[in-house]
Specification:
The protein is an alpha+beta fold. Helix content is 30%, strand content 18%. A 7-stranded antiparallel β-sheet has the order 1-9-6-11-4-3-2. The chain has a 4-stranded antiparallel β-sheet with strand order 5-10-7-8, with no helix packed on it.
């Protein structure tokens, strides 16, 4: 009898079921359990993260100096939060345990989000290979500045009672958010309360994302899917005891400037660097210093990208005074 040749399946088995895919596509967020290896990496990273934020401000700044325009290093927003951003590991000559844990987490979180993109591909009839140029160099932490992509890992420490972030959506593809306490909230159109938000979101309500890890759809993924997937509005509200969070933002690689949209149903080639610039330019940075944030908002308002404050305040009054608050890194945010 001749031997039977067995072929591997054309793609991995689905990670998400149909209900989860529907929610992620239509509401822009999904709370879910994460694989055990990734969960272990999260626990280790939180332990080291907690130790890092107990250091003096000068020690944190000296160890991870910030550099304007790089989204890299340690930052502090007085009376709100402090955070450390990795886009690569520039400290290769003296890597700390935190650096090693961050790189390990990245190497697990990025493929996990890639797996979710693959599930969305199957649901939307997008070839699995369509993501390859978009994820070039994103699936493990780059070794140096010259190898970076827009993808980043951000570790937050929100101060008790005052640490928050305004309502926003993320800029990238998918974001993984994990917190130690309640604070991250997502807008759920399917919520039974049928409240209305001050900035004209569909009927629904803010829902706490804690305690499960949460996936958020970003603006770039909404654009790529021709709005078959919607970016998920979210915010961070103050916690009386404060909170820490891990935010991993999987963003499009810009190593290949020109991108063929044919796999996504559009017969055209676009300048991906230009598109990314437009997406980033359509938001303000919820993690910038207060004065910078205000200046960015005014520029956006002048361009018609934000409603006038008088309109917002009037809508708040009409809707029972609902206040907004949120979280991310460059413009759209993270939890």
């Amino acid at each position: 009898m001749s031997a039977v040749a067995f072929q591997p399946p054309p793609h991995p088995p689905p990670l998400l079921d149909e209900t989860q895919i529907f929610q992620l596509a239509n509401e822009g967020y999904l709370a879910l359990d994460i694989p055990k290896p990734l969960s272990t990496a999260v626990s280790e990273l939180f332990d080291l993260n907690r130790d890092f934020f107990t250091l003096s401000t000068s020690d944190k700044q000296n160890r991870y100096p910030s550099a304007e325009g790089t989204e890299l290093g340690y930052y502090q927003i007085p009376q709100e939060k402090e955070y450390l951003t990795y886009r690569h590991c520039p400290w290769t000559s003296s890597r700390t345990p935190l650096d090693v844990a961050a790189a390990s987490f990245w190497s697990l979180a990025a493929p996990f989000l890639h797996r979710i993109l693959s599930d969305l591909s199957l649901a939307l009839d997008i070839p699995l290979s369509a993501w390859d140029p978009l994820l070039d160099g994103c699936l493990s932490m780059p070794n140096g500045l010259q190898e970076t992509t827009p993808t980043l890992l951000r570790l937050f420490n929100y101060f008790p009672a005052s640490g928050a972030a305004e309502r926003h959506t993320d800029t990238g593809l998918l974001t993984l958010c994990i917190g130690t306490a309640p604070g991250l909230e997502v807008w759920s159109p399917s919520s039974s309360s049928s409240a209305t938000d001050a900035a004209s979101l569909p009927k629904g309500d803010w829902v706490s994302a804690h305690p499960r890890p949460t996936i958020l759809v970003g603006k770039t993924l909404q654009w790529l899917s021709n709005s078959r997937l919607v970016a998920g509005p979210h915010r961070v509200v103050a916690s009386s005891e404060g909170r820490q969070s891990i935010v991993f933002a999987l963003r499009p690689s810009l190593r290949r400037r020109y991108f063929d949209l044919n796999p996504f149903g559009e017969r055209t080639v676009v300048d991906l660097v230009g598109v990314w610039g437009q997406i980033r330019g359509s938001v303000f940075n919820v993690n910038a210093q207060t004065a910078i944030r205000t200046e960015q908002k005014e520029r956006m308002r002048a361009r018609g990208l934000l409603p006038d404050e008088d309109v917002v305040m009037r809508e708040r009054e009409e809707n029972g005074g609902d206040e907004q608050s949120g979280e991310d890194g460059q413009g759209p945010g993270y939890g």
